[in-house]
Amino acid sequence: GDRRGSSEPSDCFKLVRTVVARGMDPLIVFAFGKRAVEGLAAQMGGLSDLTNADERASITQIFENAIDTLSEDDKQLPQVSKMLPLLQRGIAVHHSGLLPLLKELVEILFQENLVKLLFATETFAMGLNMPAKTVIFADLSKFDGSQF
């Protein structure tokens, strides 16, 4: 349910916290739609960091090397500026609205086990062999424009 007005953690947050506590990460949470993916990632504010200092340093280095190739205008995009703080915690989002460079960056970090918690749309599942221990589906049906 929608709990925006409540301080109660979401069901997704509680499930993710339990999975992580049991060492069942890396995990992918699939949701249908960019907004759903972003919204679920935003619910993870209270989750403790999933990375250690060495991993955070590697993530920062890889991220900075990757975005060096972007134009100054692209570097100012919210999807770029908001990504590093999440990545440093071991959390990422992946959907069709991201710049191709950022999607590739997330895929690399996930393969290297630097991203432990990934919120993604079904585009991430297409033809990729990603090493997840746990997969969670936030929704079981997708709206096709007229029905679920």
From TrEMBL:
User: Which keywords accompany this UniProt record?
Assistant: ATP-binding, Helicase, Hydrolase, Nucleotide-binding
One MF term in the entry's GO annotations: hydrolase activity
UniProt cross-references to Gene3D superfamilies, sorted A to Z: P-loop containing nucleotide triphosphate hydrolases
- One cellular component term from this protein's GO annotations in UniProt: nucleus
> Which Gene Ontology BP annotations are present?
maturation of 5.8S rRNA
This protein's name: Helicase C-terminal domain-containing protein
Q: Which organism is it from?
A: Chrysotila carterae (Marine alga)
